[in-house]
Amino acid sequence: MATPKITPQKLADDSLKRLKALADPVRAQGAQRYFKEKEKALFLGISTPDMRELDHELFQKIKAEWGVAEATEFCRIMLANPYHEVKGLGILTFERYRKNFPRSAFATIKGWLLADRCNSWALVDVLCPTSVGALLEKYPDLVKEIKGWTESPNRWVRRASIVSFIKLAKKSQHLDAIYDIVRSHFADPDDLIQKASGWLLREAGKTDLVRLEKFLRQHGPAIPRTTLRYAIERFPEAKRKALLLSTKKP
C-alpha cells in the first residue's frame, strides 16, 4: 500500500490548529468544573456538534487512503495531547475503522488506558463501548481476557471492563459475562465504577427485566446503593421503591 498523502502526524498537526480555532474559554471553564477527577484533562471548550462536524470533515480527507494502521497511529498521537477534545477527536477517527480492527487492537487500547491517555470517564465511555465492544463481538474469546481487567489498580481499565459491554448488552450478548463482571465490582469503592456498573445493569435489563430483578434481589445488600439506583431506573416507581427497601443491608 502506498504511503498516504496525509500522514497521521500531518493530520494531527492540522487537527490541533482547527481545534484551537474552535476553542471557547468560557465553555472550557464550565467543562473543567464538571469533571471531578484529580488528574483533570485540560479543555478547549468545543461543543459536541462542532467536534462531530470536524471529525466528519477530516474523515472525508483520509477515507480513501487510510487503514487501521494509520488511524491507530493518529489516535496514539492525539491521545498523548493533554486536551480532552484533542484526545476525543483521535478516538472518533480511530473507531471509524473498528470493523477492520485486528485482535491486537485490544492490547493497544489497554495500553492507552494503563498509561492514563484516557484520563476521564467521558473519554473511556467514548472509546470502549464502540471500539472494545466491536472487538468483543468480533473475537468472543476476548471476553475471558477482559474479565481480568476488573482487578486492575487503574480505574480507567476497571471502568473499561464494564462500559465495553454497553452496546452488547442492548443486543442481549454476553449477558452471563456482564452479570459476572458487575458482581466482581461490588466491593469497589470508586463511584465511577459503581455508576458504570449500574449503567450496564440497566442496559442489560432493557432486554430482560426479570433476570435483572432476580439478580438484584439475590445480591441486594452486597450491591453498592449507587449501582442499585442506576440499575433500577427503568422499573416502575413502585417496583423501584420495593427493590430499594428489600435490598437494604440489615
How would you summarize this macromolecular structure in one to three sentences?
66% of the residues lie in helices and 0% in strands. With 250 residues, the protein is mainly α.
Describe the structure.
With 250 residues, the protein is mostly helical. The protein has a domain of 100 residues: Leucine-rich Repeat Variant. It is globular and about 65 Å long. It starts with 7 loop residues before the first helix and ends with a helix. The mean pLDDT is 94.
Largest sheet composition? none
Number of helices: 15
Distance between the termini: 65 Å
Mean pLDDT: 94
- The rough form would be described as globular
The CATH topology of the domain at 1-100 turns out to be Leucine-rich Repeat Variant
CATH class of the domain at 1-100: Mainly Alpha
Tell me the series of helices and strands, N- to C-terminal: HHHHHHHHHHHHHHH
Number of strands: 0
How big a fraction of the residues is strand? under 5%
Structural class: mainly alpha
How large, in whole angstroms, is the Cα Rg? 19 Å
- The helix content is 55-70%
Level-2 CATH architecture of the domain at 1-100: Alpha Horseshoe
> Which ranges are low-confidence, i.e. pLDDT below 50, for 5 or more consecutive residues?
none
